[in-house]
């Protein structure tokens, strides 16, 4: 009995971190993560609210039936360290690639979600658009973006991208392009110097 209990305890402690509550499916067929915000999709207002909370604004463009969105929500965004990092550092607004909800872009143009995503040249989902803390009035979201993450990626790449943006590595002062940053983080994880 003692051997079985010791084996069970060893098995439990050897498990990787278990996912947090998985995203739920909304009426629109899109996954709804606990850290996503339900806003009026006036991006200037969303940016102001994100800044007031000390967070970065990020747009998640997704679509119903997207197998890659499913993969990200079930296998990556549900991991505790990824979910916590996004929730603590980002103000996330979801945009439906084929949606009809009105979006007011930073340049003041009011259009449907599907027209906005066409304007932003989004072809694939998921497509994650990271915004700066200040956007000039004449720029659209895609023109102002500091980074875009098109497609589904594993935990390490995803967390590294969110961290790279949060640390403002894209600026000249902190200049470390994402590829070098990501390669360094992979080495650190492999060396055991970084979780």
UniProtKB/TrEMBL annotation:
- What keywords sit in the KW lines? Signal
Q: Which InterPro entries match?
A: SoxW, Thioredoxin-like_fold, Thioredoxin-like_sf
Describe the location of the Thioredoxin-like fold domain by residue ranges: 51-134
| Keyword S-adenosyl-L-methionine appears in the UniProt entry | no
May I ask which residue range the UniProt record assigns to the signal sequence?
A: 1-22
Name of the protein in its database record? Thioredoxin
